[in-house]
Amino acid sequence: MLKTFNKGGIHPAENKITAGKPISTLPVPPIAIIPVLQHIGTPANPLVKKGDKVKTGQMIASGEGFIAANIHSSVTGTVTRVDKLTDASGYKRTAIEIETSSDEWMNDIDLNPGLVTDVSLSIPEIMVRTWDQGIVGMGGATFPTHVKMVFPRGIKAECLIINGAECEPYVTADHRLMLEKGEEIMIGISIVKSAIGIEKAIIGIENNKPDGIENLQRISSRFPGITVQGLKVKYPQGSEKHLIKSLTGRAVPSGGLPIDVGIVVFNIGTMFAVYEAVQKNKPLIERTVTVTGKSLKNPSNFRVRIGTPVSELIKAAGGLPDHASKIIAGGPMMGKALNTLDVPVTKGMSGLLVLDDIESKRKPVQNCIRCTRCVTVCPMGIEPYLIMSMVEKEKCEFLDDCHINDCMECGSCSYICPANRPLLDYIRLGKARLKKRKQQK
Amino acid sequence: MSSTILYTIISLSATGAISAVILYFVAQRFKVYEDPRIDQVEDALPAANCGGCGYAGCRNFAEACVKNENLSGLFCTVGGNETMSKVASILGVDAVSQDPKVAVVRCAGSYDKRPRINIYDGPSSCVLQSILYPGDTGCPYGCLGHGDCVNACDFDAIHMDLKTGLPVVIDEKCTACNACVLACPKHIIELRKKNKKDRKIFVCCINEEKGAIAKKSCEVACIGCGKCVKACAYDAITLENYLAYIDPVKCVLCRKCVGVCPTNSIHEINFPPRKNLDGTDATVDVEIVENL
Amino acid sequence: MITVSPAPHDHSNVSVSKLMFGVIIALIPTFIVSVIFFGVGVLIITLISMLSCVAFEYLIQRFILKKEPSISDGSAMVTGLLLALCLPANIPVWLVILGSLVAIGVAKMSFGGLGNNPFNPALVGRVFLFVSFPVQMSTYPEPLQNWFTYTDATTGATPLGLMKEGIKNGDSIPDLMNNIPSYIDLFIGKMGGSAGEIAAFALIIGLIYLLARKIITFHIPVSIILTVTIFTGILWWSDPTKYANPLFHLLTGGLLLGAIFMATDYVTSPMTIAGMWIYGIGIGIITILIRIFGAYPEGVQFAILIMNAFVPLINKYIKPARFGERPENE
Prior knowledge:
A: alpha/beta; four-stranded antiparallel sheet; 27% helix; C: two-stranded antiparallel sheet; globular
């Protein structure tokens, strides 16, 4: 029986055109641009400078503080510059640019392709590996994984939830991982289970991936404590709070975290990264990216090195089509439109979507007709039409009463609005203005 | 007169009279005492209610003036020194004065000088676009052109020039209330000291990137070469982060820096055309913009 | 050149004009039945009403407000069609045009156009005509006359009119019910009344279409119909000789037209489900109060306009349930 959340949600066209394409590994790129901030938290401190020679897997920036992550080189070569370079945010941020010469991995990384099933490390050693290898959330949020594995004194986690929903249209990276790296994912989950001390783990997978559900269900018979639960296809099923609600019935309170209801959530791709970090001592230097779009010649799922310029991925997918208009890092609902192709793949980039000019065109904005659709589809139960109206009229004092900070920016409201009103844009503006007001006080 | 009309007149008049008496006593009983000087100060203010003073409207500012012991930290830029001296005399405190200021737009990256390299398809709001990404040109500091500054101005003193895509300030109407400065998410607009005849000399650029990169995005960017710093005999120009800045207080408007700037990034406004030694108009590669 | 815009980069197919044209399609069965029963008059007033509403909206937007005319969104056409369907089929053309002017000019444009009006424009037009021209607005043609009769049609009383007169005269309900058409006739529309209110079955077909295409939700029509049924049911149960039964109240007058098409107008109805229930219950109660205890035989038009006035209050205090407001457990 499929589970789901009962408030709000939309059903955008799935367009999972790359679901049947096995992951193919792209060659090592000629240059790698590795930003020092690819995670939530403080930027890492560069450890190298221009002219230094680095090997694949070598740590080139170290994380500062607790909510931080290490950064490793994904190629072997010479550092050409450590400078502010444009990344997917559109802004220039500190990055380490390396000119590739070969592909020599660090000695302590296990390059053997075989499956390592025995978990021989102790819990502290597992935590240290997770921190050392720079593992962050691979679903797009890039929250440092080791932070979620440590709890304040007295708090105990009851259940581990693995996010295999992949509710964004077009993106199939996690789907392919489920099919091709199922064993590794299960071992990764067991490692995290034992490190945190949780008996029960549930993997939530949307029902548009029946082969993924079936494969993991089959493997899970050998892993006691891990179950697979199918979910109805609805956006945003992959949202942490809604995943928890669907699978356990618990609602994370406003402004709270999953651990407040005794749950820890990880993305399924992160579990694969944890397996590689703990069992093979491999840092996070490559990831699966779905390069897709109806106008692309060869939409595929690629395994690429972190730092590969996006232009290389587009080339591998058959080149930029003639009428390509928007290139989006991520999926069509929450992804970021890039303003140039000279940006690198980062730890959180799960998809690259190319839309042509017809698909990209935003329709003209009309008056709000108060049709209630935005209120009906909002999964957080707030009122987007009201927030937009207040921000437009500059009545930002009332935004707190509208619970604007509950908004998770899923985009369902803008998607469904018949008058094409840019609801989410004004909600973001309202959040920025409210923050500024509070700072000024 | 029929009795109905008579009774009607009597009853309505009586109701009116009784209500008037009740209202009078209630108004007296619940009267809020207000210092009468607040009304006097408010009358002296320009009644623009623009919020430039930092208070919620002219009455709020008047209350603040009366409540405080002196006028330090309180200034109405719309009324200027004249208004503040009137307020000072009403309250019997020392007058405060400030150099009059005017808003100056420090970006010259028009459509032909700063080519667009991508298309922005979103709500026409500078703040929204700046949240999303640096802009549709190569310069991440430049004006976005949607006119948040124009919308913020209460005095109709700033307009968007549709040919260039840049805002233009009308000096006579500008009251230096700071609304446009706060509205601009790129911090392109600056309040600078007003000079005689509205003359201005300023670096019309805020780009802090290395010279070669800045110049690639915009023909008239400041490349941080430092020629203006060397040319200035009054120590008025500083160079920081590849960007020159002319101090409006130290600047004596001698125009030496304007001639040496290789990218014409320094603007001179409202000056007479330069003359050669033989009296003919000198060709100076600088735009001399007439006041609107 | 690359285009950059904020997320989301996908949009559903729904648009304002699709929704408005969906409402027009839902009204087609009602329109056809009306033409069959009332003849060419319905065609004339519908055409005039729709044309005038669109023309007035265009003229006001272009010449008075000086902005881009928005007639292509279809909302003026819907107002025109609804206004025509709640007028008697023998009403002269100039009154239809006047009603359209009030509906569009006063009730919609003067508040700021689509989305800003607090009152249902078609109903404001109708109530204006009703209050200013009560005679022309209370004389309804008999059904099934010569198809080409228009303003010269023979007029007769509506079932609700008969009921009101009879109660005033002291007749008992069972006697009055003999003079009223049979329930079958009431259901298919063979009775006097305004152009769109007569045929219950055609209106219900329209309701099913609107629900199937997800243009409206069931909450407002169902809450109105349930409230009317329960309220009149209680009254009828208490004294069947003084009060008519619920089925009579549902099938006569403009109740179904109002419940399905007027009360569900997006702009003037509440934004939350709980709000819609309160709104519908209010309309049901006020309608029956006016019908039974008030001076007019029919009260739906006033009931809806009164509840329209309450909608901002409903929206202010009835908020949707937020996620995580009440921590729930398995």
